[in-house]
Each structure stands twice: as C-alpha cells, then as structure tokens.
Amino acid sequence: MVSSENASDSSHSQMTVQWLCDTLLPKIASWTSEEHLNTRITSLKLVGVDRYSLKYADLKKKYGPHLVQERPITPSAENLFPEYDWIIGNHSDELTPWIPVIAARSSYTCSYFVLPCCHHDFNRRFNQKKKGESQYRTYLTFVTQVGQVCGFQVEEDVLRIPSTKRVCQIGRHRTYSKEEEHIIDKQIQAFINDRCFLKTDKMDQSVVVSNLSLTENNHIATGDADSQDLKRSHYSVSSDNKNCPEYGKQHGVHHHQDNLLSCGGCIHTSQTSAMTVGDGGRKDGPRHWAEGFSTRSNEEPVRNCQQVLQTTKDRVVHMVFKAVMAADNAQAAVSHTGDLWRKGGSIPLSSVVEMLDRSTLEELKSQCGGVQTLLRNHSHIFQVSGGKVQLRDFSVSNPWAHKPAAKAPKKDASLCYKTTLCWFHGNHPDGCPRQAEKCNFAHGFEELRPRVEPK
C-alpha cells in the first residue's frame, strides 16, 4: 500500500499510484490473459530493461572479443561441444530442431535452450499444421517431440520480449541413465532418418521388411548386423510418439511390424535407406547426420530482380512499353499543358511472358522473381494489378491512387524530390504529361538533386 499521510511525500505517492494504475497493473493483466499460447508454465520474474542492458553490455565487453565466433554449423560429429554445459539456440532457424540433438550427443550433462522462430525441419522447411492449432503451435510441439526423443524432460516458458515468437523450450534433465546413451543415440538417428524421408513424395514401394520386433531393452530381436541396421533405419517414430522405443518402455508396449514398414507415411527401399544408415548415422560417425542439410551463407544475396543486368531491365521495360502503347484498348488523356498524352492501354501479364525469350525468363527466375516482380520494381512507369499491365497515368492528380497502402511508415517525399530522371520525359513520344515544376522527377540532368538518406 502507498501511504499519502505525509504531505512532503504526497507528490511522490501520487506518481507511484499513477504508475501502478496506468502501467504495472495493465501489463500484469495482459500477461496473465495470454491463453492462446497454451503454455503450462509461465514466469513473472521481471528484470528491469536498464539493469539488463547494463549487464549485457558488461558481459559483451568482458567476454565478447575472445569468445564470440561466427561460422557455419553442419550437424555432425565434428560439431559437438562436450566441454560446454549449455547449447543455446536463439532464433537459430535451420539449426532449431538440431539444438536438442547436438546437446544430447555433446555430453550426458549438456543442457539446451531453444527459442523457435522460423519453421524448419531437419533438412527442409516445416510445413505441417495440426487441425485446430496454429502452425506455430504445431511447430512448437514438433520441437518438443525432438527434445523428448533425445531423452530430455522438455520445459516450456514464455519470454517477456517484444516478439510474437517468444515461447522457449529448455532441456535440463534426462529421462535415461548414462548407461543407456547408446540406445538413445540409435533412437535419435532413427527419428532423424524418419523425418528426412518425409521430404520424398514418391518412393519405390517394392521393399518388404518383415518380422521387426522390439524387446524391452529396445534391441532388434533377430537378424544379422546389416539387416538390423537397416531395420533400425526404417523404424518409424510417429508424430504422437507411440512408435518411439522410449514410449513403449514407459507404457509396456512392445511394437511388432510386419510386411511393408512405413516411415512417415512413405514406403522406403533398402537402397534409399542405406544412404543414411551405418556408422555415419551415429554421433561418432564420420558423415553428416542428415542427407540434404545445407547451411545458410553468412551473406544473404539481394534478390527480387534487383541484381538483374541493367541491359536486361531496360530491354524488358521498352518491350513492354511498346506493347502497351500498341494495345487495342489504347486511350489518350489531356496533359497538364493541355495537349493530348497517349497513355496506351492494358495488356495481360501472360502476353508479356510470351514476348520474352527463354534465357531472359530464366535470368529473372534466378533472382527469385519474374516479369511481374521486375515491372513492379518500375512502378514509376507501370501499374500492375489484376493480372494486367498499363502505364502509370501521371496526367491525373494522384497516379498512385490504386496502389495498396504501404505497411512500413512512409518516407519523407521531399528527400526523393528530383533525385531520379523522369522516364516519361526521356522515353515517351509525347514526353511527360506534367510540367517540370510539378513533376517529382527531374526533367533533365540539370534538375537532378543529390539523394539525401533519412536520418
């Protein structure tokens, strides 16, 4: 309670009460109502931003220069960390499902923290979605399953950070003894193989694997060493963990699968399975733990047709401009000077694609774009909507009226004024429909202004 009996403290007390009512209580009410995350455990242990920032800056200055390293990590025996206590994945993207695996295989005492963000499986994007759940919650369930297969008791909490992806998972305690490490290691690799096989839609369904059974010790009952390895690689860990050896051990269930054995709904041949079984699948094996995993480059390439050759851009722009001007539905408007200004007609995007040769289309596609992307990058010339292309009509007062509202805050238009040459002034047979002083673009090099970057 805040006392206001002392007159000298009345102003301070009033401010404190105001802060409690306007700031703290609404935040607590908001945090306690976050039922959509479906997280069983929540924490309200708050640390002030100022205190956190000071501590973070101190640790960064003290340990950063000689501890922080930047390098790609490929899940394999070469990238284990037995000397460390924690493996932390903070928005670790492609490595997110690998964090529990790396922790489990680094040492028996290693723990992990992971903050899932972008949805990635072991060697591809994660695209599954359970009915009645968001894809985010489905992905969190998958990452939890990975931790459980790796033998961790997975805990979940919600971080107090300004992000929509703020559910973290922690694995601190194991569900098995140190003597059972080799069993869990095989269980982990079987699960990885199963998930990696999911990426193949069409498989040869000629394989028949029979008489597969598990004893209470999770060993293959019969067969030679090679066939046992093959059967282990085929052993399927389903999404509800009921095919998991650990699940069977806890619930007294012995699994017996005959004839066609499926992994994630696909039937696999022995030839395909042999690619990932054997010593390469174990944590001490020489090969990677999953086929098809690729690390991301530390330099993200600029795409969306921004790196297409300027000569290609100019050629496509002029080709489309001529087609629009020659369209059957071409029209004319009155320019600001009172003269007629031919604004052309509209043509379908499909006809633009037919104009271009194969090499040009492949060049655009290589930049994660296409004809539509390139034309929209030239929005000061073309208007693309409804699958049709037409010229941007600068004869009207607002040529951008049909353009969707930008999500990002608008930039100061004055910073871009006369910093780019007017395309219509130099390329349209009727010139620009606007007078020079009313056009935001420069009518000639003498009007060009240096571009000013926003502060």
Summarize the structure in words:
The protein is of the alpha+beta class and 455 residues long. The chain has a 4-stranded mixed β-sheet with strand order 1-2-4-3, covered by helices on one side. A 3-stranded antiparallel β-sheet has the order 11-13-12. The protein has a two-stranded antiparallel sheet with strand order 5-6. A hairpin with a 2-residue loop joins strand 7 and strand 8. The two termini are 46 Å apart. The N terminus is likely disordered.
Give a quick precis of the structure.
This protein is an alpha+beta fold. Helix content is 32%, strand content 11%. A hairpin with a 5-residue loop joins β9 and β10 (340-344).
Jot down its keywords:
455 residues; alpha+beta; 2 domains; 4-stranded mixed beta sheet; 3-stranded antiparallel beta sheet; 13 helices; elongated; tRNA (uracil-O(2)-)-methyltransferase
The overall average pLDDT, rounded, is 75
Q: How much beta, percentage-wise?
A: 5-15%
Give, in spatial order, the strands making up the sheet with the most strands: 1-2-4-3
State the helical fraction.
25-40%
The counted number of beta strands is: 13
Q: What structural class do helix, strand and pairing data support?
A: alpha+beta
What can be said about the biggest beta sheet? 4 strands, mixed
**What is the global morphology?**
elongated
Distinct helical segment count? 13
- Supply Rg: 31 Å
| Uncertain stretches | 1-5, 199-280
Number of separate domains: 2
From the N-terminal CA to the C-terminal CA, the straight-line distance is 46 Å
Order of helical and strand elements = HHEHEHEEHEHHEEEHHEEEHHHEEH
Family: Belongs to the TRM44 family.
Catalytic activity: uridine(44) in tRNA(Ser) + S-adenosyl-L-methionine = 2'-O-methyluridine(44) in tRNA(Ser) + S-adenosyl-L-homocysteine + H(+)
InterPro entries: tRNA_uracil_MeTrfase, Znf_CCCH
Enzyme class: transferase
